[in-house]
């Protein structure tokens, strides 16, 4: 059984996709051990509680400095026996101490086809605004492992989504969530839980399902 912690900062739509996929058995061999937010008011915490999942707020604001917060978060993840950390709209930089402890065991969902529109400053609607300014015809989402860079870890899965001439950032954001994010994030978790992800020389490979 893969014990996961889902880290969120806002509404938790990707969290809901994970919960639904576990409940309908699209994700197997997996349990959400905890949902952690840096934001006491995050609706994601209510989503978790509605499904009987432990939900906690661990916020940098509650600690004397960032290093103390980092160690507190790491200690909680270790205490719970977490196997995989899932970043689902988490707007706090993951510290090096956690990246080292959970090497290739932290995944993130990013709302573009990396390496396009990613890196420092690209989050939320900013990603889609940049894509529309550039006039791209295809965008999408990427699930990747987290390393010390920003959106630079090994790519696990990607899914393309069309961009239309009359799209607004909000419309494009919704389409990418529905057609890409809510599909490939659960799929990546399921593949990890069932031993189908291998990382070699910085490249992640998804092995086929057993027939």
TrEMBL record:
Its EC number is 2.1.2.2. Pfam families: Formyl_trans_N (PF00551). GO terms for cellular component: cytoplasm. It comes from the Bacteria. The active site is at 110 (proton donor). HAMAP family: PurN (MF_01930). Catalyzes the transfer of a formyl group from 10-formyltetrahydrofolate to 5-phospho-ribosyl-glycinamide (GAR), producing 5-phospho-ribosyl-N-formylglycinamide (FGAR) and tetrahydrofolate. This is Phosphoribosylglycinamide formyltransferase. The lineage of its organism: Bacteria, Bacillati, Bacillota, Clostridia, Lachnospirales. The gene is purN.
